Amino acid sequence: MSDSKISGCFKCCSKSKAQRKSSLPDILDEKIAKRVKSLLNGMALKTSRTQKIANCFNVCALYFCHIIWGILNIVMLFCGLSITALSGYLYYSMATLKISGSNFDFPLPIATFVFGSLIIILAVFGFACTGRPHCLVLYSSCLIIIMLLEILLAIHIYVNYAEEHASIRYQEIFKKVFKDSIDRYSDDKESWKFVDMVQRDFGCCGVNSSADWYTTPLRMVPDSCCEFDCTLSKDSVYPKGCPEKLESAIRDKEEKCFALTTLAMPLAIVYTALAIPINGYLF
């Protein structure tokens, strides 16, 4: 074999090795961009016009999904953080007040904390899957399983606990907690802090309305019940009671997270369907 043939073979093997090294699944997005550019340049001579348009569309769709995927994961992350913060806030408040008679039999804070933590883990995992098509297959599978579990849980709750009944039950618990707290508002520092914190944060007053305060030892509406100074105008008093506002806020956040998870599943499937064929071109 001549020296030129040996040299050519060596170059071919070296090039093949370099290509194998650069085709690791954990390649950075910057390298993917370079690959896309070289791929499009190479297609100018090797493919038909229809193929070039189709491949360009696939590449553009992939990067568009990158952007949407990043935005979705950021929104999911903030949603998960807000849910875990709310559940921690509720659990801490109950633990501080030592609610009598409930024995802490209140699954909502724990359930929302687990759900929020799951959303955070999915969002972080979603960021880690960016640019890794085979990892996205696992991510899509996890989302599908989670969605199926959520559907089964929703059916179970609907069949065994009617939504109105559950809402009434939660409001009854909130009312008991808040009634005990406003009765001890003047004497107990922890109750005073808890009531003021809830009324300011949720824009509410009393158990059912501000009238509840006139039956307490305080015999007046506290400043936390008002958007502005209560002594200046009675119109600044929050009209709704806190149990209703608190239950409404919790349900609103749960519905938003369920909607985000529902939206994430088809997007993950589409992203995976685009990423796997492009993976064949790029690597």
From TrEMBL:
Membrane topology term: Multi-pass membrane protein
Locations listed in the record: Membrane
Residue ranges of the TM segments: 67-92, 104-125, 137-159, 257-278
Record-level GO cellular component terms: plasma membrane
Q: Which CDD domains match?
A: tetraspanin_LEL
Q: Which Gene3D superfamilies match?
A: Tetraspanin (1.10.1450.10)
Superkingdom per UniProt: Eukaryota
Q: Does the keyword Transport apply?
A: no
Record's keyword terms, sorted: Membrane, Transmembrane, Transmembrane helix
Pfam families given in the database record: Tetraspanin
* Chief subcellular location: membrane
UniProt keyword Cell membrane present:
no
Query: What is this protein called in UniProt?
Result: Tetraspanin
Lineage of origin: Eukaryota, Metazoa, Ecdysozoa, Arthropoda, Hexapoda
